[in-house]
Amino acid sequence: MKEKLFDTEYESLRQAAECHRQVRRYAQSFVRPGISYLEVVKRIEDAARKLIRANKLEAGMAFPCGTSINNCAAHFAPNLGDTKILHKDDVVKIDFGVHVNGYLVDSAFTVAFNPIYDPLLEASKEATATGVKESGIDARLGEIGERIQETMESYEVEIKGKTYKVRSIQNLGGHMVNRYRVHGHKMVPTVKGGSQQKMEEGEIYAIETFGSTGKGYVMETEDTSHYMRTFDAKPVAIRNSRSRALLKLIEDNFSTLAFARRWLDELGFEKYLPTLTL
Question: Across the strands, what pairs with 105?
Fold first, then answer.
């Protein structure tokens, strides 16, 4: 979000956004029951890279495509060897980002094949629209979160004869976006009581909402699928030659953007896991 963007930044964001829009439309045409998680992410990432003319740090994926299913709210992407497939009663959140010159677009959409989940999808859609509408220069982040929660929790979903209130997940939310840094230092909450910091001119935000029929709180589970070099990490001496080679590969291709283990496989770097998880 900016009123006065520099021309190069504005054009980079426009290119990234148009790429995301076209790839999102393409994904919606093939995501169906029976397709594997891995095929979904590979087709999306391949399409985005081709359209944006990916070239290391000049343009490409801003982070791995995620396929978070059912009670997994966010940030899951299949690693190589994953054989899970989508089923007709699944609710899948597809999240991917694209960047040009480090200026990135972070956006997601939800797909459900069973119409009983339509009110859940509608709740998230309307809550997101509310968050966007409430955003602007001098808008207080906590007040945006309160409006998002009010919209989200005005919905109910009936599943197998039982009615569930849609809850806004309290420990997930939107965030500020910086160049080559998908999660900036300000968070946009999705519930009331959040920070009273204000949005300021020149800042860019991803407005994200998370609706749930559960308790509205998430915990970390599953294998790690997203990796990222610490944005402001201080240089340290690395004695192991293989570790140095891996770091150079990461810096040359991703810098401080998130990446997936399978991307290292695609680049031909083998036996990286012991070093990557140090």
Answer: 98
